[in-house]
Design goal:
heterodimer, A: 304 residues, alpha/beta, Pectate Lyase C-like, 3 domains, twelve-stranded mixed beta sheet, eleven-stranded mixed beta sheet, 4 helices, B: 97 residues, mainly alpha, elongated
Chain lengths: 304, 97
Protein backbone atom coordinates (compact mmCIF):
# COMPACT_ATOMS: atom_id res chain seq x y z
CA UNK A 1 0.00 0.00 0.00
CA UNK A 2 2.84 2.31 0.98
CA UNK A 3 4.65 1.39 -2.26
CA UNK A 4 1.58 2.29 -4.31
CA UNK A 5 1.37 5.63 -2.53
CA UNK A 6 5.03 6.27 -3.31
CA UNK A 7 4.47 5.28 -6.93
CA UNK A 8 1.67 7.84 -7.22
CA UNK A 9 3.98 10.48 -5.73
CA UNK A 10 6.85 9.64 -8.08
CA UNK A 11 4.48 9.50 -11.07
CA UNK A 12 2.95 12.82 -10.05
CA UNK A 13 6.31 14.60 -9.93
CA UNK A 14 7.39 12.93 -13.18
CA UNK A 15 4.18 13.97 -14.96
CA UNK A 16 4.43 17.49 -13.55
CA UNK A 17 7.95 17.85 -14.96
CA UNK A 18 6.81 16.30 -18.24
CA UNK A 19 3.93 18.78 -18.55
CA UNK A 20 6.40 21.64 -18.01
CA UNK A 21 8.68 20.20 -20.72
CA UNK A 22 5.71 19.89 -23.12
CA UNK A 23 4.75 23.53 -22.45
CA UNK A 24 8.31 24.72 -23.18
CA UNK A 25 8.61 22.55 -26.31
CA UNK A 26 5.26 23.60 -27.77
CA UNK A 27 6.00 27.26 -27.03
CA UNK A 28 9.40 26.93 -28.72
CA UNK A 29 7.87 25.30 -31.79
CA UNK A 30 5.14 27.95 -32.05
CA UNK A 31 7.59 30.85 -31.67
CA UNK A 32 10.10 29.34 -34.12
CA UNK A 33 7.31 28.83 -36.61
CA UNK A 34 5.85 32.32 -36.16
CA UNK A 35 8.50 34.96 -36.66
CA UNK A 36 7.71 37.37 -33.84
CA UNK A 37 10.90 39.24 -34.67
CA UNK A 38 9.13 40.62 -37.73
CA UNK A 39 6.50 42.23 -35.53
CA UNK A 40 9.00 43.46 -32.94
CA UNK A 41 10.97 45.39 -35.53
CA UNK A 42 8.03 47.48 -36.64
CA UNK A 43 8.56 51.14 -35.80
CA UNK A 44 6.44 51.49 -32.67
CA UNK A 45 6.17 55.25 -32.80
CA UNK A 46 4.68 55.19 -36.26
CA UNK A 47 2.04 52.70 -35.17
CA UNK A 48 -0.79 54.49 -36.92
CA UNK A 49 1.00 54.84 -40.23
CA UNK A 50 2.27 51.27 -40.48
CA UNK A 51 0.73 49.14 -43.20
CA UNK A 52 0.61 46.07 -40.99
CA UNK A 53 -0.37 43.68 -43.71
CA UNK A 54 2.55 44.75 -45.87
CA UNK A 55 4.93 44.74 -42.89
CA UNK A 56 4.03 41.19 -42.01
CA UNK A 57 4.32 40.06 -45.58
CA UNK A 58 7.87 41.37 -45.93
CA UNK A 59 10.33 39.31 -43.94
CA UNK A 60 12.74 41.34 -41.82
CA UNK A 61 16.46 41.44 -42.50
CA UNK A 62 16.94 38.70 -39.92
CA UNK A 63 15.32 36.27 -42.33
CA UNK A 64 17.07 34.58 -45.21
CA UNK A 65 15.57 35.46 -48.59
CA UNK A 66 16.34 33.90 -51.92
CA UNK A 67 14.76 35.43 -54.99
CA UNK A 68 14.40 33.82 -58.38
CA UNK A 69 12.51 34.10 -61.63
CA UNK A 70 11.64 32.05 -64.68
CA UNK A 71 10.38 33.09 -68.08
CA UNK A 72 8.12 30.80 -70.10
CA UNK A 73 7.73 31.91 -73.69
CA UNK A 74 5.01 29.55 -74.94
CA UNK A 75 1.40 30.79 -74.93
CA UNK A 76 -0.04 28.23 -72.52
CA UNK A 77 -3.75 28.41 -71.84
CA UNK A 78 -3.94 27.01 -68.34
CA UNK A 79 -2.05 28.04 -65.24
CA UNK A 80 -1.85 26.00 -62.04
CA UNK A 81 -0.13 27.30 -58.91
CA UNK A 82 0.25 25.25 -55.73
CA UNK A 83 1.72 26.78 -52.63
CA UNK A 84 1.71 25.96 -48.95
CA UNK A 85 2.80 29.03 -47.07
CA UNK A 86 3.13 32.39 -48.77
CA UNK A 87 1.16 34.68 -51.04
CA UNK A 88 0.28 34.12 -54.66
CA UNK A 89 -0.01 37.31 -56.74
CA UNK A 90 -1.05 36.86 -60.35
CA UNK A 91 -1.11 39.88 -62.65
CA UNK A 92 -2.18 40.14 -66.25
CA UNK A 93 0.11 42.01 -68.63
CA UNK A 94 0.44 42.85 -72.31
CA UNK A 95 3.58 40.77 -72.99
CA UNK A 96 3.16 37.39 -74.69
CA UNK A 97 5.15 35.34 -72.18
CA UNK A 98 4.86 34.24 -68.55
CA UNK A 99 7.14 35.73 -65.91
CA UNK A 100 7.28 33.80 -62.67
CA UNK A 101 9.03 35.61 -59.84
CA UNK A 102 9.35 34.01 -56.45
CA UNK A 103 10.83 34.79 -53.08
CA UNK A 104 11.76 31.96 -50.75
CA UNK A 105 12.15 33.05 -47.17
CA UNK A 106 12.62 31.46 -43.79
CA UNK A 107 14.29 31.93 -40.44
CA UNK A 108 17.37 29.84 -41.34
CA UNK A 109 19.43 29.44 -44.51
CA UNK A 110 19.07 25.63 -44.42
CA UNK A 111 15.29 25.88 -44.39
CA UNK A 112 15.27 28.26 -47.33
CA UNK A 113 17.70 26.16 -49.35
CA UNK A 114 15.46 23.16 -48.82
CA UNK A 115 12.60 24.97 -50.57
CA UNK A 116 12.33 24.53 -54.33
CA UNK A 117 10.06 25.95 -56.98
CA UNK A 118 9.16 23.55 -59.75
CA UNK A 119 7.75 24.81 -63.03
CA UNK A 120 6.37 22.07 -65.31
CA UNK A 121 4.86 22.56 -68.69
CA UNK A 122 2.67 19.96 -70.30
CA UNK A 123 0.23 20.32 -73.13
CA UNK A 124 -1.45 23.68 -72.62
CA UNK A 125 -0.77 23.66 -68.87
CA UNK A 126 1.90 25.49 -66.97
CA UNK A 127 2.21 24.23 -63.44
CA UNK A 128 4.06 26.07 -60.66
CA UNK A 129 4.63 24.19 -57.43
CA UNK A 130 6.42 24.79 -54.19
CA UNK A 131 8.46 21.76 -53.13
CA UNK A 132 8.99 19.77 -51.02
CA UNK A 133 5.60 18.77 -49.74
CA UNK A 134 5.63 19.12 -45.99
CA UNK A 135 7.08 16.09 -44.24
CA UNK A 136 8.26 17.49 -40.96
CA UNK A 137 5.97 18.48 -38.14
CA UNK A 138 6.75 22.15 -38.37
CA UNK A 139 6.16 24.37 -41.35
CA UNK A 140 9.50 25.37 -42.86
CA UNK A 141 9.70 28.76 -44.49
CA UNK A 142 7.47 30.26 -47.14
CA UNK A 143 7.47 31.00 -50.85
CA UNK A 144 5.73 34.04 -52.30
CA UNK A 145 4.89 34.05 -55.98
CA UNK A 146 4.49 37.03 -58.27
CA UNK A 147 3.33 35.72 -61.63
CA UNK A 148 2.68 37.76 -64.75
CA UNK A 149 0.48 36.17 -67.38
CA UNK A 150 -0.31 36.99 -71.02
CA UNK A 151 -3.89 37.29 -72.24
CA UNK A 152 -3.76 33.83 -73.87
CA UNK A 153 -4.57 32.27 -70.51
CA UNK A 154 -8.05 30.80 -70.22
CA UNK A 155 -8.02 29.10 -66.81
CA UNK A 156 -6.20 29.78 -63.56
CA UNK A 157 -6.08 27.43 -60.62
CA UNK A 158 -4.35 28.70 -57.47
CA UNK A 159 -4.12 26.73 -54.27
CA UNK A 160 -2.48 27.72 -51.01
CA UNK A 161 -2.76 26.76 -47.37
CA UNK A 162 -1.60 29.87 -45.60
CA UNK A 163 -1.37 32.97 -47.74
CA UNK A 164 -3.31 35.45 -49.83
CA UNK A 165 -4.29 34.84 -53.43
CA UNK A 166 -4.55 38.12 -55.31
CA UNK A 167 -5.36 38.40 -59.02
CA UNK A 168 -4.96 41.81 -60.65
CA UNK A 169 -5.54 43.22 -64.12
CA UNK A 170 -7.10 39.99 -65.28
CA UNK A 171 -8.18 39.78 -68.91
CA UNK A 172 -11.92 39.16 -69.27
CA UNK A 173 -13.41 35.70 -69.27
CA UNK A 174 -10.75 33.70 -67.43
CA UNK A 175 -12.11 30.74 -65.51
CA UNK A 176 -10.65 30.82 -62.02
CA UNK A 177 -10.43 28.26 -59.26
CA UNK A 178 -8.95 29.74 -56.09
CA UNK A 179 -8.50 27.94 -52.77
CA UNK A 180 -6.83 28.83 -49.53
CA UNK A 181 -7.25 27.83 -45.91
CA UNK A 182 -6.07 30.96 -44.18
CA UNK A 183 -5.74 34.03 -46.35
CA UNK A 184 -7.54 36.66 -48.36
CA UNK A 185 -8.72 35.96 -51.90
CA UNK A 186 -9.21 38.77 -54.36
CA UNK A 187 -9.77 38.83 -58.10
CA UNK A 188 -10.48 42.00 -60.03
CA UNK A 189 -12.03 40.30 -63.05
CA UNK A 190 -13.18 36.76 -63.60
CA UNK A 191 -15.19 34.53 -65.85
CA UNK A 192 -16.53 31.41 -64.18
CA UNK A 193 -15.26 31.49 -60.65
CA UNK A 194 -14.86 28.98 -57.86
CA UNK A 195 -13.51 30.21 -54.53
CA UNK A 196 -13.00 28.30 -51.33
CA UNK A 197 -11.57 29.75 -48.15
CA UNK A 198 -11.73 28.84 -44.49
CA UNK A 199 -10.74 31.95 -42.61
CA UNK A 200 -10.00 34.65 -45.14
CA UNK A 201 -12.24 37.23 -46.73
CA UNK A 202 -13.10 37.06 -50.42
CA UNK A 203 -13.68 39.86 -52.89
CA UNK A 204 -14.30 39.48 -56.60
CA UNK A 205 -15.61 41.07 -59.77
CA UNK A 206 -17.52 38.48 -61.74
CA UNK A 207 -18.88 38.41 -65.25
CA UNK A 208 -19.34 34.76 -66.15
CA UNK A 209 -22.10 32.22 -65.82
CA UNK A 210 -21.09 29.96 -62.93
CA UNK A 211 -20.04 31.32 -59.57
CA UNK A 212 -19.35 29.24 -56.48
CA UNK A 213 -17.89 30.96 -53.42
CA UNK A 214 -17.71 29.38 -50.00
CA UNK A 215 -16.00 30.56 -46.83
CA UNK A 216 -16.24 29.57 -43.20
CA UNK A 217 -15.37 32.70 -41.28
CA UNK A 218 -14.52 35.21 -43.96
CA UNK A 219 -16.81 37.80 -45.46
CA UNK A 220 -17.69 37.79 -49.15
CA UNK A 221 -17.86 40.98 -51.21
CA UNK A 222 -18.48 40.89 -54.90
CA UNK A 223 -19.54 42.75 -57.99
CA UNK A 224 -21.46 41.07 -60.77
CA UNK A 225 -22.08 42.41 -64.22
CA UNK A 226 -22.87 41.07 -67.69
CA UNK A 227 -23.97 37.73 -66.28
CA UNK A 228 -24.39 34.96 -68.78
CA UNK A 229 -27.32 32.59 -68.52
CA UNK A 230 -26.92 28.84 -68.26
CA UNK A 231 -25.01 28.75 -64.99
CA UNK A 232 -25.76 29.37 -61.35
CA UNK A 233 -24.58 31.61 -58.54
CA UNK A 234 -23.85 29.93 -55.21
CA UNK A 235 -22.43 31.88 -52.28
CA UNK A 236 -22.16 30.55 -48.78
CA UNK A 237 -20.50 31.46 -45.53
CA UNK A 238 -20.81 30.33 -41.95
CA UNK A 239 -19.95 33.39 -39.93
CA UNK A 240 -19.17 35.98 -42.59
CA UNK A 241 -21.46 38.50 -44.21
CA UNK A 242 -22.19 38.41 -47.95
CA UNK A 243 -22.48 41.71 -49.82
CA UNK A 244 -23.14 41.67 -53.54
CA UNK A 245 -23.33 44.58 -55.98
CA UNK A 246 -24.99 43.70 -59.24
CA UNK A 247 -25.74 45.69 -62.37
CA UNK A 248 -29.32 46.62 -63.19
CA UNK A 249 -29.70 43.90 -65.80
CA UNK A 250 -29.73 41.21 -63.11
CA UNK A 251 -32.29 38.54 -63.91
CA UNK A 252 -32.19 36.01 -61.17
CA UNK A 253 -34.18 33.44 -59.29
CA UNK A 254 -33.01 34.21 -55.77
CA UNK A 255 -32.93 32.27 -52.53
CA UNK A 256 -31.38 34.23 -49.66
CA UNK A 257 -31.03 32.57 -46.29
CA UNK A 258 -29.42 33.90 -43.15
CA UNK A 259 -29.98 32.15 -39.84
CA UNK A 260 -29.23 35.05 -37.53
CA UNK A 261 -28.29 37.96 -39.81
CA UNK A 262 -30.31 40.50 -41.74
CA UNK A 263 -31.32 40.20 -45.40
CA UNK A 264 -31.72 43.20 -47.69
CA UNK A 265 -32.09 43.61 -51.43
CA UNK A 266 -32.20 46.83 -53.48
CA UNK A 267 -33.74 45.16 -56.52
CA UNK A 268 -37.49 44.80 -56.93
CA UNK A 269 -38.27 41.18 -56.06
CA UNK A 270 -41.34 39.16 -56.97
CA UNK A 271 -41.54 37.38 -53.65
CA UNK A 272 -42.59 33.74 -53.43
CA UNK A 273 -41.45 33.01 -49.85
CA UNK A 274 -40.64 35.56 -47.18
CA UNK A 275 -39.72 34.60 -43.64
CA UNK A 276 -37.58 36.21 -40.97
CA UNK A 277 -34.49 34.40 -42.22
CA UNK A 278 -35.44 33.49 -45.78
CA UNK A 279 -36.27 35.39 -48.93
CA UNK A 280 -37.15 33.61 -52.16
CA UNK A 281 -38.36 35.15 -55.36
CA UNK A 282 -37.45 36.52 -58.75
CA UNK A 283 -35.52 39.55 -59.84
CA UNK A 284 -36.51 40.45 -63.38
CA UNK A 285 -37.22 37.40 -65.49
CA UNK A 286 -35.30 35.11 -63.15
CA UNK A 287 -33.00 33.40 -65.64
CA UNK A 288 -30.10 32.64 -63.33
CA UNK A 289 -30.52 30.75 -60.05
CA UNK A 290 -28.80 32.55 -57.16
CA UNK A 291 -28.45 30.85 -53.77
CA UNK A 292 -26.92 32.79 -50.92
CA UNK A 293 -26.60 31.24 -47.48
CA UNK A 294 -24.95 32.40 -44.31
CA UNK A 295 -25.38 31.36 -40.72
CA UNK A 296 -24.53 34.42 -38.69
CA UNK A 297 -23.70 37.13 -41.20
CA UNK A 298 -25.88 39.58 -43.08
CA UNK A 299 -26.84 39.39 -46.76
CA UNK A 300 -27.04 42.53 -48.88
CA UNK A 301 -27.70 42.82 -52.59
CA UNK A 302 -27.14 46.33 -53.92
CA UNK A 303 -27.29 47.96 -57.34
CA UNK A 304 -24.00 48.89 -58.97
CA UNK B 1 -12.28 12.86 17.47
CA UNK B 2 -13.26 15.93 15.52
CA UNK B 3 -9.60 16.68 14.85
CA UNK B 4 -9.07 13.12 13.67
CA UNK B 5 -12.01 13.46 11.24
CA UNK B 6 -10.73 16.79 9.98
CA UNK B 7 -7.28 15.35 9.34
CA UNK B 8 -8.80 12.35 7.61
CA UNK B 9 -10.85 14.60 5.34
CA UNK B 10 -7.80 16.71 4.55
CA UNK B 11 -5.65 13.66 3.75
CA UNK B 12 -8.40 12.23 1.60
CA UNK B 13 -8.69 15.50 -0.33
CA UNK B 14 -4.94 15.60 -0.97
CA UNK B 15 -4.91 11.97 -2.12
CA UNK B 16 -7.91 12.60 -4.36
CA UNK B 17 -6.20 15.63 -5.93
CA UNK B 18 -3.07 13.60 -6.62
CA UNK B 19 -4.96 10.78 -8.31
CA UNK B 20 -7.06 13.24 -10.29
CA UNK B 21 -3.89 14.98 -11.52
CA UNK B 22 -2.49 11.63 -12.76
CA UNK B 23 -5.77 10.99 -14.57
CA UNK B 24 -5.74 14.53 -16.01
CA UNK B 25 -2.20 14.12 -17.33
CA UNK B 26 -2.94 10.76 -18.99
CA UNK B 27 -6.04 12.24 -20.68
CA UNK B 28 -3.96 15.24 -21.79
CA UNK B 29 -1.31 13.04 -23.42
CA UNK B 30 -3.89 10.78 -25.05
CA UNK B 31 -5.90 13.67 -26.52
CA UNK B 32 -2.72 15.40 -27.72
CA UNK B 33 -1.63 12.26 -29.57
CA UNK B 34 -5.05 11.98 -31.23
CA UNK B 35 -5.03 15.69 -32.22
CA UNK B 36 -1.45 15.51 -33.55
CA UNK B 37 -2.36 12.48 -35.66
CA UNK B 38 -5.51 14.16 -37.03
CA UNK B 39 -3.54 17.36 -37.77
CA UNK B 40 -0.78 15.51 -39.63
CA UNK B 41 -3.07 13.16 -41.51
CA UNK B 42 -5.30 15.97 -42.81
CA UNK B 43 -2.69 18.68 -43.45
CA UNK B 44 0.86 19.20 -42.24
CA UNK B 45 1.00 22.80 -43.22
CA UNK B 46 -0.12 24.20 -39.92
CA UNK B 47 0.44 22.51 -36.57
CA UNK B 48 -2.57 23.79 -34.66
CA UNK B 49 -2.42 21.03 -32.04
CA UNK B 50 0.62 22.79 -30.52
CA UNK B 51 -1.69 25.55 -29.26
CA UNK B 52 -3.78 22.93 -27.45
CA UNK B 53 -0.58 21.39 -26.05
CA UNK B 54 0.54 24.80 -24.79
CA UNK B 55 -2.61 26.09 -23.14
CA UNK B 56 -3.92 22.79 -21.82
CA UNK B 57 -0.34 22.05 -20.66
CA UNK B 58 -0.40 25.22 -18.58
CA UNK B 59 -3.65 23.99 -17.01
CA UNK B 60 -2.15 20.57 -16.31
CA UNK B 61 0.94 22.16 -14.75
CA UNK B 62 -1.20 24.29 -12.43
CA UNK B 63 -3.11 21.15 -11.50
CA UNK B 64 0.25 19.54 -10.63
CA UNK B 65 1.22 22.52 -8.49
CA UNK B 66 -2.03 22.42 -6.55
CA UNK B 67 -1.97 18.63 -6.09
CA UNK B 68 1.69 18.11 -5.19
CA UNK B 69 3.36 21.40 -4.25
CA UNK B 70 0.72 23.54 -2.56
CA UNK B 71 -1.27 20.56 -1.39
CA UNK B 72 -2.17 22.02 2.01
CA UNK B 73 -3.94 24.89 0.28
CA UNK B 74 -1.62 27.92 0.47
CA UNK B 75 -4.40 30.48 1.01
CA UNK B 76 -6.23 28.34 3.54
CA UNK B 77 -3.07 28.02 5.63
CA UNK B 78 -2.55 31.75 5.45
CA UNK B 79 -6.15 32.31 6.56
CA UNK B 80 -5.71 29.92 9.52
CA UNK B 81 -2.51 31.77 10.54
CA UNK B 82 -4.32 35.10 10.36
CA UNK B 83 -7.21 33.77 12.47
CA UNK B 84 -4.75 32.50 15.08
CA UNK B 85 -2.90 35.84 15.16
CA UNK B 86 -6.12 37.84 15.43
CA UNK B 87 -7.35 35.61 18.28
CA UNK B 88 -4.04 36.17 20.08
CA UNK B 89 -4.32 39.94 19.60
CA UNK B 90 -7.92 40.06 20.83
CA UNK B 91 -6.93 37.95 23.86
CA UNK B 92 -4.03 40.33 24.65
CA UNK B 93 -6.31 43.38 24.41
CA UNK B 94 -8.83 41.79 26.81
CA UNK B 95 -6.02 40.98 29.29
CA UNK B 96 -4.84 44.61 29.20
CA UNK B 97 -8.36 45.84 30.00
Amino acid sequence: MRNKGNLINYLGYLFGILSLIIIILSLTCIIRDRPVSRIRKCPFRMWAQVDWEETLRKPSTGWTRIEGEEIIGEPYKNLEVKNISGDIDITGWKEDYFLIKYVKSGPTKEWVEELRVQVDTTENVISVKRLPELKSLIQRGSVSFDIFIPDTVKTISANSVSGHIILNQMPAGITQNLKTVSGRIKTDNSGNLQVSSISGSTSFRFSGSTLNVSTISGSIKGEMSNLKSGGSLELSSVSGSIHINADETLNSDISLKSVSGSISCDFPVTISVKKRNLLEGKIGEGFIPMNIKTTSGSIKIRKL
Amino acid sequence: MEDENKRYEEARKIAKNKVSFIRHFITYIFVLIVLAVINNVTSRAYQWWLWVALFWGIGVFFNFLSAFIFKGGGLKKLEDDLVRREMKRIGAEKDEK
